[in-house]
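Project outcomes to date are best conveyed with an example. Our students and postdoctoral researchers have been running inverse folding experiments weekly, and each run begins with a structure described purely in tokens. The record below, which covers 918 residues, was selected by the lab manager from last quarter's runs and is presented without edits.
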């Protein structure tokens, strides 16, 4: 018999009459008073009589039996009782109104298995138990075989007593982060106290793993359970040993919850060192912050202090990658990332900073990317679009640091103010009559920069002219107080004004688009160079003069372009129905005046005895001993800004873009809505070059060509090349003669070329296919030894249904090695300076085990590039993570097995061999 009963009862209600056997349970509810339709103002705030303060709701799937004399109700089969914030579900529930007591237990089925064990909820707390007794007046209870969750942890106890403050006292308790009824591991304690959403305190405890007790334990236990809110707490350090630091305690400290927006993690490390010196120490501060709908970010600062020394490898340095390396005693590193939430009309402040000592990552970081990265860049910027105005501005700071050359490049500040393109007629409110000149528009940009670098420029000129003093290569000056003067001299300030005038866009002969334009750029500098010939030294001296100097350049341009289409139809009944070729030719012209004749922009070295004579003595020779012909040198070489223009230019450029597509029948379409689909054969095949009519020599620029395509939507191909039209002499220097004028005429010569091929394999790429190729099944007669008549049955028996991915790329760079010089003994340059292949991917061996890898091969040096293998194994409440770098300077491995919960993150075992302790 199955029935449903629900009751809402107060103690003052008349007792229910016994239900005759065989009749379904009635629905019992408090009868509403039809005479009282509104609230009685005289009874507002009056509590009901009796111990029960609110309505008791109860129901059962089978039946409800009432005992009027004993004031007891028994609910059978999937019973539930709801009283205020308390909710109880169980197989059998007994409600004793005389003692205000609820008891609940499971229900045994015909096999003797207990089902529908009690589940008790009191506010946010939930308990699973074998038997529950709860007094809804005193709010105290006794729970047998209890299981409850506190934060990320679970409490198992033989007997639990709950008081009116919701505190729990457990006997023979177990604390774990495993959510199974029989956990894989737990902390076993005879007594424990639980303060919900605050802490778990135990007496003496020990750790049990796989039902095997371990001697790991302590006299008491304390486990914070903050629930959903964050909590401050200690961070347990890690013990280890390193070759250069000795024994150490690392990453121990404290986590501070500053407020609801900021969290701060402060950790430190101490190293024992050796008998000669103290190992040193390190500190780290990591702060995360977030404001909803505004911004979020993270700041990490690390400092390391240790005595200067060496890591000693084997006596034979070639036999070990752990060779001798010098260490800097004091290093630091700063990481800062700040990302704003985009909002219309508001400013945007963003930051990405990676800066510090160039040696820090090589001495302290185990991150492969940071260890191998030679260049770090940083930027901090604020930008804003003024509301209701076509003006935007930005303030920025950029920095670049090279960990190999120790070069630092800093731009502070970087100010940009831009005015969007404005139609001149609309800007001044002039009436329009749809004339061609009414399309004229003006655009303006202002860029101010102050650049600093600790790299002093080389004291050489491109022509080989000897200089007085200095070196032929750039020098990097260490950033320290003693070098302040040369560093300050290296500051370079510039301001640029860019004016662009658009003269409109016009259609000619219905199919051609003409777009003319004029631009003017002006740069302001606070210094410039002066070249002076010193006859005694037979060299040139370069001096820097201070002041305000203006450099203005102007140019005019026009472009004419169109699109041509060619289509070849095969027929609608063919698999390939049509092929279309799109051809986009473009011709452009640009012109600018001759700026080489301006002495404020360019200068020949002059003789101080005769400043008006700028022609050098004919006896002057360059660094190779050959006679030197004086040329013009820029007075702003190496400075920021656009710099002065070159000689006169009247340049005609052309470009040709090609795209090929085909229309094929869509065999996967069964509805008829998309019977065909487009497939790209060539994404782009582009050609471009230019011809300068006013240039003195080499008027025809090299031809640039590029090809982009995809094969089967998986193989991406990118090929680019540069072709030269001019001859060259035996030394490889270009001659102003075309190649078709030589003895063996040809049109062009390939100077440089590059190719990039990438392919992505994915076992689940095509839906509905579990394997990528047919498989041979194992012989049924003997799955171990196989069929003797077919000894090769297992050759291709591979399980390709396992999800996996593989990304492979091949890159190559070709450079013309120059003319053959076999008799001179000069070694030619490599034709292929770079040819390398990189592979990466992932294999999901099981639902809980994953393997990822990355590797490569350099065909030029014939060496394997950085190879890394990482694996992850999910053990339910535990996990194993590991990485292995088999070769290279940072070869080693790292394996960690630990609890997945962040609450027990220090419960782990780690084994590693890295470049620090190998």
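After processing, the design step wrote out the following sequence:
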């Amino acid at each position: 018999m199955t029935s449903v009963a629900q009751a809402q009862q107060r103690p003052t209600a008349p007792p229910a009459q016994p239900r005759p056997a065989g009749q379904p349970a009635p629905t019992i509810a408090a009868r509403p008073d039809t005479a009282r339709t509104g609230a009685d103002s005289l009874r507002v705030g009056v509590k009901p009589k009796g111990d029960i303060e609110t309505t008791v709701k109860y129901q059962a799937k089978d039946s409800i039996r009432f005992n009027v004399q004993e004031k007891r109700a028994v609910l059978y089969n999937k019973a539930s009782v709801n009283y205020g914030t308390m909710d109880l579900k169980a197989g059998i529930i007994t409600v004793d109104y005389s003692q205000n007591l609820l008891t609940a237990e499971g229900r045994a089925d015909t096999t003797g298995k207990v089902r529908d064990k009690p589940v008790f909820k009191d506010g946010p707390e939930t308990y699973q138990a074998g038997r529950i007794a709860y007094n809804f007046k005193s709010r105290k209870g006794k729970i047998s075989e209890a299981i409850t969750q506190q934060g990320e942890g679970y409490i198992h106890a033989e007997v639990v007593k709950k008081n009116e403050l919701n505190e729990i006292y457990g006997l023979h308790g177990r604390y774990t982060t495993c959510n199974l009824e029989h956990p894989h591991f737990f902390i076993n304690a005879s007594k424990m106290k639980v303060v919900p959403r605050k802490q778990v305190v135990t007496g003496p405890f020990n750790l049990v793993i796989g039902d095997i007790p371990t001697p790991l334990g302590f006299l008491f236990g304390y486990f914070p359970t903050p629930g959903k809110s964050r909590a401050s707490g200690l961070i347990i350090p890690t013990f280890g040993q390193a070759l250069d630091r000795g024994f150490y305690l690392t990453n121990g400290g404290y986590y501070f919850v500053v407020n609801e927006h900021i969290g701060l993690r402060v950790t430190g490390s101490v190293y024992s060192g050796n008998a000669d010196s103290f190992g040193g120490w390190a500190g780290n501060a990591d702060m995360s912050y977030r404001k909803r709908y505004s911004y979020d970010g993270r700041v990490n600062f690390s400092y390391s202090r240790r005595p200067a020394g060496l890591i000693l490898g084997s006596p034979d340095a070639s036999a070990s990658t752990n060779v001798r390396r010098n260490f800097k005693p004091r290093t630091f590193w700063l990481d800062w990332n700040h990302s704003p939430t985009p909002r219309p009309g508001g400013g945007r402040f963003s930051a990405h900073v990676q800066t510090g000592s160039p040696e820090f990552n090589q001495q302290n970081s185990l991150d492969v990317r940071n260890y191998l990265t030679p260049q770090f860049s940083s930027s901090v910027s604020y930008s804003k679009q003024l509301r209701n105005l076509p003006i935007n501005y930005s303030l920025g700071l950029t920095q670049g640091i090279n960990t190999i050359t120790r070069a630092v490049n800093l731009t502070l500040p970087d100010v940009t103010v831009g005015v969007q393109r404005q139609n001149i007629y609309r800007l001044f409110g002039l009436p329009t009559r749809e004339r061609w000149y009414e399309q004229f528009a003006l655009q303006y940009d202002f860029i101010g920069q102050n650049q600093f670098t600790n790299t002093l420029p080389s004291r050489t000129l491109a022509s080989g002219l000897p200089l007085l003093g200095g070196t032929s290569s750039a020098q990097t000056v260490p950033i320290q107080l003693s070098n302040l003067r040369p560093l300050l001299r290296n500051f370079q300030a510039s301001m640029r004004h860019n004016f662009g005038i658009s003269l409109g866009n016009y259609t000619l002969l219905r199919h051609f688009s003409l777009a003319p334009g004029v631009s003017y750029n002006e740069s302001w500098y606070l210094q410039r160079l002066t070249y002076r010939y010193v006859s005694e030294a037979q060299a040139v001296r370069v001096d820097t003069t201070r002041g305000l100097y203006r450099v203005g350049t102007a140019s005019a341009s026009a472009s004419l372009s169109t699109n041509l289409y060619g289509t070849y139809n095969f027929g609608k009944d063919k698999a390939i129905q049509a092929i279309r070729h799109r051809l986009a030719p473009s011709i452009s012209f640009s012109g600018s005046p001759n700026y080489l004749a301006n002495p404020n922009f360019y200068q020949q070295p002059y003789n101080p005895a005769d400043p008006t004579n700028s022609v050098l003595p004919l006896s002057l020779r360059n660094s190779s001993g050959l006679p030197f012909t004086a040329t013009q040198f820029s007075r702003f070489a190496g400075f920021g800004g656009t710099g002065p223009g070159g000689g006169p230019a009247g340049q005609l450029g052309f470009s040709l873009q090609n795209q090929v597509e085909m229309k094929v029948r869509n065999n996967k379409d069964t509805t008829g809505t998309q019977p065909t689909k487009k497939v790209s054969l060539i994404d782009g095949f582009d050609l471009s070059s230019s011809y300068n009519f006013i240039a003195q020599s080499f008027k025809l620029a090299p031809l640039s060509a590029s090809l982009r395509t995809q094969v089967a939507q998986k193989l991406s191909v990118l090929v680019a090349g540069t072709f030269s039209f001019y001859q060259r002499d035996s030394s490889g220097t270009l001659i102003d003669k075309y190649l078709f004028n030589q003895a063996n005429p040809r049109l062009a010569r390939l100077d440089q070329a590059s190719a990039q091929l990438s392919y992505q394999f994915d076992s689940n790429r095509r839906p509905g296919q579990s394997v990528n190729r047919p498989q041979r099944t194992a012989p049924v007669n003997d799955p171990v030894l196989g069929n003797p008549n077919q000894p090769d049955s297992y050759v291709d028996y591979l399980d390709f249904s396992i999800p996996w991915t593989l990304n492979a790329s091949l890159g190559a760079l070709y450079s013309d090695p120059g003319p053959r010089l076999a008799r001179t003994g000069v070694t030619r340059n490599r034709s292929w300076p770079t040819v390398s292949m990189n592979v990466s991917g992932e294999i999901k061996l099981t639902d809980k085990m994953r393997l990822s890898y990355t590797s490569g091969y350099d065909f030029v040096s014939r060496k394997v590039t950085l190879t890394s293998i990482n694996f992850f194994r999910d053990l339910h409440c535990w996990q194993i993570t590991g990485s292995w770098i088999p070769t290279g300077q940072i070869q080693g491995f790292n394996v960690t097995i630990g609890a997945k919960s962040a609450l027990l993150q220090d419960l782990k075992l780690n084994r590693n061999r890295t470049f620090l302790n190998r």
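The mean pLDDT is 79. The helical segments are 360-364, 368-372, 424-427, 484-489. The training component of this project remains on track.
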